[in-house]
């Protein structure tokens, strides 16, 4: 496990430490240096060796505490100095995690990289909220998109959401009104069921449901904060449907 001079890009999963892979837990415990972002919870950082150096490069939507180039340079410098470097990211490193950019930078500098997958927020949230991302009766395709402001209008989501499909939107809390508008302009029904899953797999998790047209109000009224995912599709209403059916049957 002591593998120095290499950068380990490690997925930390959606928050619950029980959802770390064994390999992630072992690497975190063995690392000399852990460079982590804001999504990695303290419960997970507690696995670090007490002599390890923890460096936060937390990114917030409005301000970046460390530019990507600086992060790349930091990782390369530490690995070259012979330290065992773990770059720890929320979810999976290769899903909206800039893991690709960091791996490219390491390769360009001639430093070896290992990538350890993590449970992405979509998978963690779906399991925790008991929403099937695909279902033989309701959805045969699932897509992951980023909903942050930059370029949202230019992104082509046509065909990704609608009947028989599930769309999972990362980083979409701030832009919920534009997202709802965009999807309805693409032809989605205003009553298409949606769910917002905030703090998935963590103790503060909330699952909110409603029709697409009410998404902006839901986010505002319930003061939804990041990290949260928006899931669009009939699969988000199945649990409600089952519960309603059960209630009816019990009442009979
Ligand atoms: N690499 C990460 C995604 C990073 S982008 C992954 O694979 O999950 C950051 C976005 O991920 C957040 O804005 C939010 O939309 C989502 N996210 C991460 N953790 C989450 C959680 N515990 N609950 C809900 N959404 C989460």
Automatic annotation (TrEMBL):
PROSITE patterns (alphabetical): SUMT_1 (PS00839), SUMT_2 (PS00840)
Pathway, per record: Porphyrin-containing compound metabolism; siroheme biosynthesis; precorrin-2 from uroporphyrinogen III: step 1/1
GO term, biological process aspect, one: methylation
Keyword annotations of the record: Methyltransferase, Porphyrin biosynthesis, S-adenosyl-L-methionine, Transferase
Record-level Gene Ontology MF annotations: uroporphyrin-III C-methyltransferase activity
EC number assigned by the record: 2.1.1.107
Alphabetized InterPro entries for the sequence: 4pyrrol_Mease, 4pyrrol_Methylase_sf, 4pyrrole_Mease_sub1, 4pyrrole_Mease_sub2, CobA/CysG_C, Siro_Cobalamin_biosynth, Uropor_MeTrfase_CS
This protein's record includes keyword Transferase: yes
Domain Tetrapyrrole methylase: 7-215
Family from the record: Belongs to the precorrin methyltransferase family.
Protein name according to UniProt: uroporphyrinogen-III C-methyltransferase
Organism: Qipengyuania benthica
Name of the gene encoding the protein in the UniProt record: cobA
